[in-house]
Design goal:
Order of helices and strands: HHHHEEHHHHHHHHHEEH
Strand content: 5-15%
Helix content: 55-70%
Oligomer: single chain
Number of helices: 14
Distance between the termini: 79 Å
Largest sheet: 2 strands, antiparallel
Number of strands: 4
Strand order of the largest sheet: 1-2
Structural class: mainly alpha
Length: about 300
């Protein structure tokens, strides 16, 4: 019979740091690995899936508590962080993945010692949640705050990390969540001088596609996007030296047959549309003209 992590946690705070490390390392090794769990419960039998999940959560609490106060041995710390990315529990041929919202709760509670070490792995998971399971994000504001802090870390490092930054920004600017997409282009504008030619072109293409997705959706019920259009054109101008024929074609193809409009309150004397607002042409003709102009300028 094994002493469970819950019982161990009640007494581990009284132990010396080296002993706490050993206890935490053992529970990480036994329970936080993602493979089939080999464990005997208090009755001497094997746990079912629900019991295994409880054991895993208790081991996780203990390991993170020790990590926060004393750190962990390198091997245990690496294994713990790797498990947090997958959060898989397997026992007796059954498995379950703990939710992203539960992961978020842990990161929030232990942000001071955990977030920076998760680094781009955290932003990768958060963006994936925005892409495919936005309901799993409990607080959009808190998640984006953590993502932005990771982005700032990446921006301050070398070119390898900045490549990850631009890859993540391309994904984030494309998500349906307006706040997340806004956060991406705000970060891109702040760090525009760090982008090389390919990164600039990649972000412009992703940003343009997201804008077109809004403008071409007849059921879109989103705030005024004219400011986003202006931001796009600002980046287009600032990155003009990076444009090429392919970028110009992408802008032209994305806007072909479309006229982007934003709805604004209609001033007196102006003809109103069915919704009581008038349409103001913006963005897409400018995108096409700017792309073609910059591309032709580079060829000259």
């Amino acid at each position: 019979m094994n002493v469970g992590p819950s019982a161990a946690r009640r007494i581990v705070h009284q132990a010396l740091p080296v002993d706490r490390w050993e206890v935490a390392e053992q529970f990480v090794s036994d329970l936080l690995h993602g493979d089939e769990i080999d464990w005997l419960n208090a009755s001497g039998g094997s746990p079912n899936l629900d019991e295994a999940i409880t054991l895993v959560r208790e081991a996780l609490d203990l390991a993170l508590q020790v990590r926060g106060s004393d750190g962990l041995p390198d091997s245990a710390d690496s294994r713990l962080r790797q498990w947090l990315l997958t959060r898989n529990v397997q026992v007796d041929g059954q498995s379950q993945t703990l939710s992203f919202s539960e992961f978020e709760s842990l990161v929030s509670e232990h942000a001071t010692h955990l977030l920076a070490d998760l680094g781009a792995d955290y932003s990768d998971l958060a963006i994936s949640a925005f892409q495919s399971d936005e309901n799993s994000i409990v607080s959009t504001e808190a998640t984006l705050s953590r993502v932005r802090s990771i982005f700032e870390q990446l921006a301050e490092k070398g070119q390898e990390e900045r490549a990850i930054l631009w890859s993540h920004l391309n994904r984030l600017v494309s998500v349906p969540c307006i706040e997340a997409s806004d956060s991406a282009w705000e970060t891109a504008a702040r760090h525009r001088d760090l982008a090389d030619a390919a990164q600039a072109r990649g972000f412009l293409a992703a940003f343009a596609a997201r804008l077109l997705e809004h403008f071409e959706d007849p059921d879109a019920n989103e705030p005024d996007w004219s400011e986003r259009g202006r931001r796009f054109n600002d980046l287009l101008t600032q990155w003009g030296d990076h444009l090429d024929d392919e970028t110009g074609k992408a802008c032209q193809d994305s806007s072909r047959g479309s006229l982007a409009t934003t709805l604004q309150p209609s001033p007196k004397g102006k003809r109103r549309g069915p919704s009581g607002r008038h349409s103001v042409p913006i963005l897409l003709p400018d995108i096409r003209a700017n792309c073609n102009h910059e591309s032709s300028h580079r060829q000259a």
